[in-house]
Amino acid sequence: MSTRTITLTVNDQTLTREVPVRKTLADFLREDLGLTGTHVGCELGQCGACTVLLNGDPVKSCLLFAVQAEGSQIVTVEGLAGKDALHPLQQAFHDHHALQCGFCTPGMLLAAVDLLSRNPAPKADEIRRHLSGNLCRCTGYVNIVKAIEAVGAGAAGTDTVSTGAVGAGNIQK
Amino acid sequence: MKSAPFEYLVPASLAEALETLAGHQDETKVLAGGQSLVPLLKLRLARPRYLLDINRVPELSYLELKDGRLHLGALTRHSALGREPSARGSCPLLAEAAARIGHTAIRNRGTVGGSLCHADPAAELPAAMIALGAELKIDGPGGTRLVPAAGFFQGFMTVDLQPDEILAGLSVPVAGPGTGWSYLEVSRRHGDFAIAGVAVWLSLDDKGLFRQVGIALAGVDDRPWKARACEDFLVGKEAKEEVIAAAREQLAGFDPTGDIHASREYRELMAGELFVQALRQAVERAANNL
User: What ipTM score was computed for the predicted complex, to two decimals?
Assistant: First the structure.
């Protein structure tokens, strides 16, 4: 089996691993690093559950081979919360009942982090458009939009929404 | 879900990419953004022996205004067409069309060159490139050749590109005084492929006559379809409602298929309606731009 050694930074932690070249970034994060917050839904780029930030931009980690992430900066949902507190978006999802089964939540959070980094106080229609690539099979969209709106409203004029990783998650050695 | 095994090749220059391709041409797929190819690999509809990842070829990543045209490397991501001020300002048709491609995460990876080479007949950028009269730059063992977008698309997902060639980039005209544009499509949801789409790029002269007109349709034939007869009909005529209505009468010759999403008749109807709406919008923008 063809493998390669890659070095990349995941949630602020730089690491080197040998990976089969056909392994997706999503499978690498889950199976090799134990970061199972990145969920694998459709595996074909349609559902958005596997969304991670690649050099700051949301991408579908099921449509990227891990070898392609060589030298890049990845942020997964494990990288959002601080040591003592949830990320403001995570807290807002909790407060607004924005998750039911929770499967789509990691992808929703990372897409929302990207949106708020570009537009700190988005309106509901902008939120819906930006998250249109993230499917919630519980159809709990209303509260997801409310949660993101609340963070946007709270952050207007302040600088409380961080877009980079503050925690590393529990990466397997 | 895993791709069939392949050898991963990651050239660091265009010369190295072409050399590698020349050595393994019939067994190699070129990987750019991967937003269409990777699903095909995972479904094992594509089983190449070699995967040539061109994402680290610096010569394929550029975006510059030069000699009155916007030059784009094949690796230009869809999101850059809307985000980069120089691209959005100089060629707003591309930004408008690119905004309809998939979703944010898809647009962050998907590339202009990949969309053109994949040549899905319902895709946005192939139609936009034909309307614009884009000039494609193709590199191969014999050097560089330039191909007009209208001649590049040869059939269902079939393009004028040899197995040892790479689409390196392209250039498009930039908006000037009197330029108007529009990209409109109907799809079941935002981000889906177009049931029908229309790209228009035109310019009016100071008397309000059509000086130059480019129109292409998506989703209504086996390839992006250039509305040549309508373009010829419009040039030199006054940009007004009756003329647009008359141009619609010239809109014929494309051959849509019916599928689960829309019947043939619905696609024809939508193509005609979008044609009128897109022309109207482009004329309005051109008039504001004079």
Answer: 0.93
Q: Which of B38, B79, B103 lies at the smallest CB-CB distance from A132? A: B103
B287 touches chain A (CB under 8 A): no
Q: Which two tokens stand for residue B163?
A: 């197995």
Place of tokens 């990372």: A110
Fold topology of A3-79? Ubiquitin-like (UB roll) (3.10.20)
CB pairs under 8 A between A and B: 80
Q: Going by CATH, does the domain composed of B7-56 fall within 3.40.190.10?
A: no
Task: List residues bridging with B64 in a β-sheet.
Answer: B71
Sheet holding A3-10, edge to edge: A13-20, A3-10, A73-75, A51-54, A57-60
Tell me the CATH architecture of domain B179-288.
Answer: 2-Layer Sandwich (3.30)
CB contact under 8 A, A45 and B55: no
B45: distance to nearest CA of chain A, Å?
Answer: 13
Taking the domains of chain A in order of start, what are their residue ranges? 3-79, 88-155
Residues B73/B127, Cβ–Cβ less than 8 Å = no
Out of B4, B51, B103, name the one closest to residue A133 (CB): B103
Per-residue confidence in pLDDT tens, chain A, 173 aa: 799 999 999 999 999 999 999 999 999 999 999 999 999 999 999 999 999 999 999 999 999 999 999 999 999 999 999 889 999 999 999 999 999 999 999 999 999 999 999 999 999 999 999 999 999 999 999 999 999 999 988 765 444 444 444 455 677 76
Fold of A88-155: DNA polymerase; domain 1 (1.10.150)
